[in-house]
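User: What would this chain look like folded?
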Amino acid sequence: GYLYCLNAADGKLLWKLRGAPQDRPDYRHLGNNRLVSFWPVRGGPVLADGVVYFAAGIWPTFGVFVLAVDAQTGKVLWVNSDSNYLAQVRIDHNTLFEAGLSPQGYLLVSGDKLLVPNGRSFPARLDRQTGKLLYYVQGYRHGDCRVTTLGKYAFVGDAGVMSVEDGREVGSRWAAAGADAPNVFDGSKFDLFEGPIDDYKFFPACDARSVLTPAAVYGASKGTFYAHDLTQPKISEFEKKAGARTLKPWRWDLPELWKLPTEQAKGTPPSVAIIKAGSRLYSHAGKTLLAVELPPDNGQPQVVWQQQLEGTPTSLAAADGKLFVATAEGGLLCFGGNAGEPYTYPRAEAPLPEEDAWSERAAEILQRTGVSEGFCVVLGLTDGGLVTELLRQSKLRLLGVDADSGKVNALRDRLVAAGLYGTRAEVFVVSAADHGDPNEFRLPPYLASLLLTERPSGALRAVEQAPRLFAMLRPYGGVLCQDLPAAGTVVLAKAVEANHPRNAKVEESGRFLLLRREGALPGSADWTHETADAARSYFSKDQLVQAPLGVLWYGDGADYGFFKTKDYGV
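Assistant: Here's the prediction, encoded as structure tokens.
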């Protein structure tokens, strides 16, 4: 949840600033399969006139903060902390309802306005001088975290275009409809909703990925380059049947200046990145990198060189007379004007070596607990050897915590060198606010399939810490594993078992004491269908979870059984 400012010459930290208020404890939960702050900085920074703007927090329930800070010192100039709850916001289906900002994407500056992307909701506009939120329409189907802007317009994702002046989509007929504009959901006036349901931009290669200049909007799509004139937009009606009714939504068009199909366009390969440097455009058609010379005056553009790549470009940058290409496969390529054999710098990965001092212990832990997948939390490190051995011998995802930043950084370096940091393992420094005790590190409940420590003293050391550690264990078999003999440890574990008679079980196995969290959470109930149950009751029998509600984890895709669709706003 921090914004960092580094010296560009040597990488030295100049200042860092937490986006959330300093008096809020640093709580964490799982976000996209990573352990993240409640207030991650997903509102990426933008610099203008010596001021950096950024945003922290994505869940309005927890609070959302947009900040302006002095770029040299990190001094806070203003904070917008009241946009997490907004009354009477126009959301989907033209409904007025409570809503909140969810900053996701790089912020943008447009004149005296600050544009804040909101994931799949439409961007919000703030006054740059004060941070005050201007008129906001959440929108319906055209929001995106990717936004770019020039002059009167902001392009949002692939399909959205916003008028920077009033914050509405350019395809919205609502303001022009006057007294006929619906103020609630009205099925007979879909074409007049303030947030358009229908698409209104139908021409390609003019979106958030495009290069916007006063002369033209340049884009590439499926191997074809385009240029459009942003100074002459045209709005018109088109007819669309909706049952027996004929609706007349608006469409928004720009004149096409030129179009250049390349020889790769026949196969419709993806073109997801484009930049302009000097008089040339650089983009790609699938794995073919392309350079296009822009025409002087009314001349014709032409492809001046192309290069077949082993990977697929995802982003491009030009600097120092060179072109840099990042690929989806993890490569970084550099192109220049000098002929000769290219240098190759292979990534030097250092596979984790076997840690003799920990190998047998790790194997026995896995065998005794029966846990080999899920999250393993290690509260307290000695040298990180148990962490690396568990990574080598299992499919566990490791989360390590310690008060010693030197130990933490050394282990991070080893994991980065092995290519495992961020995908299989993360390591954290416990703060002074948590008394420097790894057991006090604020982890979400129900997280750990396996909980242990590298410290000889064990993880479970005091009665007052027992409820916190037990709460970390995952239902249906989460295990705290600790060394024997330790009479006090057995007493503590038995105390937990007594306080949770329905699902806490203590057992001794070899040299270990195991505290398991068995079965479902007491008071929990099944939710088996979209509507709760086969009877479509829309009624939960859960007695455990009560309002107010928070977020334990979030993510999307096959691993979560959920895919983004066009009608969901976050």
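The chain has two domains: 2-215+223-255, 356-517. If you want, I can go into more detail on any region.
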